[in-house]
Write a structure and sequence with these properties.
It is a single-pass type II membrane protein. The chain is of the alpha/beta class. The protein is 36% helix and 20% strand. The chain folds into three domains: 228 residues, Spore Coat Polysaccharide Biosynthesis Protein SpsA, Chain A, CATH 3.90.550.50; 96 residues, Nuclear Transport Factor 2, Chain: A; 249 residues, Spore Coat Polysaccharide Biosynthesis Protein SpsA, Chain A, CATH 3.90.550. Helix 5 packs parallel to helix 12 and helix 14 packs parallel to helix 16. The relative contact order is 0.04.
Length: 766
């Protein structure tokens, strides 16, 4: 019996052995939880007191915490849910959200710059400031008393109507507070005879706290005034915080009436000291405001003092030429600093990489630049483009060879020059290279690092003794991606109404029912803000017989059924008689019947409308800025792709058996005002030659006769079923050729076509 019991216990233990870690973990967890709960209970135990008497606070606990309120430094930041309640007796008011999230969160722009100028120096020193540093500041305005008859191009000027210096300063401070006081954190005031290092000023404000009243600049003593009080010298610029400006504004009128001064910077400094008690400082929060005073006949190129190189502002600048020379010198100093920082970082990367498992083999070239993209399949391989000094062998239009010109030619010339310069820098003074010929050139764009080049150069190498030799050398270069910038775009909204325009011919009748069903399901049922207008394009022969037989009678009946089903919807249609359905002529008719602010979506009968694409149409189309020409996804011929097999219909096969049809420009999103402006320029160019319109599409009108951005991108939301489109031979040769290419490339992929030919050859051989 003992042996049997032991065997049973052993069997039970062997069965429970896999679960032993789980049981031990649960036991340990429960024990620790009970132990922690007992500690918490003992710590929170209250003392027994008489009824009605509050418990005394624990030692070290502030009275506020004892009463249930958080004490100083012990704020309770735990969130709490506030239940929504709306009084049924009060009318409902729609909550209006702000246009930008930064407005709702109370964010401000960083820096605003004001330049004080005059009528005499507006076209000289002010222009020099605008050409050197203005584009480095996010917002810069020029303030003057009287303006000249012609304002220089690219400058935003504010004229106050009085050249008195104190009045100019008073009006400028009022203007800044009124128009920009709630939008910016820092305000930098400078004169037009001041050269300021814009990048250094921007770096300065990023290291200062916006919660303090800041009056920062070159501190100067008042003449005959208090030794402790200082004002900021206006010639070297000064920085004001937003909080100081808000506090100063109510006292500006009193300062204008009570403070007498000749210099505007002294007047402003006295105003700040008298009413706010804040004096100018040259150092704050560990940041120094370095300045440099130029002597007469100074040569900026020869200034090597550390004080000059560290200066944020230089004064006085007597003429435009000196301003440009200063800008050149400081740019060179900044560039040398950047190159030195790059070398230091590269050295650190080499030292650290040697300690990694990969060792020195893990160092990429160039050091600090991302490694080249490694494709995971043959479909991800980035191809190289071959070029010479005269020709490019990978052309945008698909031709095998084209002349190298424009930006591409400048790019090739610059990269060859840079290659020879780098070789000379490496081998001088032993060898001196000069280019004779570019034998071969290759380039490709790697999105992870930039443009890569491989050059085979025929070079002449000359030694110090005068001997020369011709040799071929291969060099590799990289033009890395620089700092990514966000391009400012005008504000757009998804609430804009979209007006769909659908041209229909007799050949399109078989596809109208599916288009209307998709339109009703995705826009009318969802109450999307979209309308539809149909264009019935009659052939002259059909137009004569419309009284007896209307070829579009079935479509008109479908529209009537839709209007009955959706009582609030009206679908207008327009009849057009023409042999050549020119896209431009059709849009001319539609454009005249709609307001100028209408957002058009020019659709085709094979388009399946959905809300996702309509929102992208709204967001990608910007009035007086950008038009949108989506590239739809065209499915292949299922007969060739599946060859009798079942068609894939799962979501995982979305956008698989097809291609983006880059030859089609049938779909377009644009505003009526933009189309009318471009159409007016086109009419002035062609005069009365209306036959030219037959060779153009709406895309050509915007491309050649508008200054708008043409946004052409693939659109996965526009999926079209396969159909063999009829190409009108009466259209221009280019449009007809596009239509034929679209049909041919839409048959199937090359692998599918090859398989179909292979099966056909096998069938013929048997």
């Amino acid at each position: 019996p003992a042996v049997a019991a032991a065997m049973r216990i052993g069997a039970v233990l062997s069965a429970l052995q896999p679960a032993l870690p789980l049981l031990l973990g649960l036991s340990l967890g429960c024990s620790l939880s009970l132990l922690r709960a007992s500690w918490s209970h003992s710590a929170a135990e209250e003392r027994c007191l008489a009824p009605g008497r509050p418990a005394p606070p624990a030692r070290g606990t502030p009275p506020e915490a004892a009463e249930g309120r958080p004490g100083p430094g012990h704020e309770d930041f735990r969130p709490r849910i506030v239940p929504y309640y709306r009084d049924p007796n009060k009318p409902y008011k729609k909550v209006l959200r702000t246009r930008y999230i930064q407005t709702e969160l109370g964010f401000h722009e960083r820096l605003f710059v004001a330049v004080l100028t005059s009528k005499a120096t507006l076209n000289t020193l002010a222009v020099a400031v605008n050409k050197t540093v203005a584009h480095h500041f996010p917002r810069l305005l020029y303030f003057t008393g009287l303006r000249s008859a012609k304002v220089p191009h690219g400058m935003v000027l504010v004229a106050h109507g009085d050249e008195r210096p104190i009045w100019l300063m008073y009006e400028t401070m009022n203007y800044i507070h009124e128009h920009f006081g709630s939008d910016y954190d820092w305000f930098y005031i400078m004169q037009d005879d001041t050269y300021a290092q814009a990048e250094q000023v921007k770096a300065l404000v990023t290291h200062l706290s916006i919660n303090q009243d800041v009056y920062l600049g070159r501190a100067e003593e008042f003449i005959g005034g208090d030794e402790q009080a200082r004002y900021c010298h206006g010639g070297f610029g000064y920085l004001l915080s937003r909080s100081l400006l808000l506090k100063l504004h109510p006292h500006l009128d009193s300062c204008r009436n009570e403070i007498l001064s000749v210099r505007p910077d002294e007047w402003l400094g006295r105003c700040i000291i008298d009413f706010l008690g804040i004096t100018c400082v040259s150092q704050l929060q560990g940041q120094h405001y370095h300045t440099y005073e130029l002597a007469k006949n100074t040569e900026p190129e020869k200034e090597e003092e550390e004080e000059f190189q560290a200066a944020l502002a230089v004064h006085p600048v007597s003429d435009m030429t000196l301003m440009y020379r200063l800008h050149k010198q400081f740019s060179r100093i900044q560039l040398d600093r950047v190159y030195q920082e790059i070398q230091d970082l590269q050295m650190q990367i080499r030292n650290l990489t040697a300690l990694t498992p990969a060792g020195e083999a893990g160092v990429t070239w160039p050091v600090g630049i991302n490694a080249p993209f490694l494709p995971k399949s043959r479909f991800e391989v980035i191809s190289w483009d071959y070029f010479t000094e005269q020709h490019l062998f990978s052309c945008p239009d698909g031709s095998p060879k084209c002349e190298l010109s424009g930006a591409s030619k400048a790019d090739v010339s610059e990269i060859i020059e840079s290659a020879v310069e780098q070789l000379n820098r490496r081998y001088q003074p032993l060898l001196r290279f000069s280019k004779q010929q570019l034998l071969n050139g290759y380039r490709r764009f790697d999105p992870t690092r930039g443009m890569e080049y491989t050059l085979d150069l025929l070079l002449e190498a000359a030694t110090q003794k005068g001997h020369s030799h011709v040799l071929a050398k291969r060099v590799s270069l990289v033009r890395p991606l620089s700092k990514v910038e966000i391009i400012p775009m005008p504000y757009v909204t998804e609430a804009t109404r979209v007006q769909l325009v659908l041209p229909l011919t007799v050949q399109d009748l078989d596809f109208v029912a599916n288009f209307l069903d998709m339109f009703a399901m995705n826009t009318l049922d969802t109450h999307d803000n979209a309308l539809l207008t149909l264009l019935f394009i009659y052939h002259p022969y059909d137009a004569q017989r419309v009284g007896q037989v209307d070829v579009f009678a079935g479509v008109k009946a479908m529209l009537g059924e839709l209007e009955k089903r959706y009582a609030e919807v009206k679908i207008p249609w327009i009849s057009v008689k023409t042999e050549v359905p020119s896209q431009v002529k059709l849009m001319d008719i539609v454009s005249k019947k709609h307001p100028v602010d209408t957002l058009f979506f020019l659709a085709s009968v094979w388009t399946e409308i959905n809300m996702e694409f309509l929102n992208r149409c709204r967001m990608n189309t910007i009035s007086n800025w950008q038009v949108f020409f989506p590239v739809h996804f065209q499915e292949f011929n299922p007969t060739l792709v599946y060859r009798g097999e079942q068609t894939a219909s799962s979501n995982t096969d979305f956008l698989r058996d097809g291609h983006f049809d880059r030859h089609s420009f049938a779909e377009a999103c644009f505003y009526n005002s933009d189309y009318m402006a471009a159409r007016t320029k086109l009419a002035a160019d062609i005069l009365d030659r209306d036959e030219v319109l037959e060779s153009m599409e709406v895309f050509d009108v915007f491309l050649h006769y508008s200054g708008l951005h043409l946004f052409r991108a693939v659109e996965p939301g526009l999926v079209q079923k396969y159909t063999l489109r009829s190409c009108n031979p009466r259209l221009s040769e280019e449009l007809y050729h596009r239509c034929v290419l679209s049909n041919l490339e839409g048959l199937a992929s090359r692998s599918h076509l090859a398989m179909a030919l292979f099966e056909q050859e096998q069938a013929n051989s048997t």
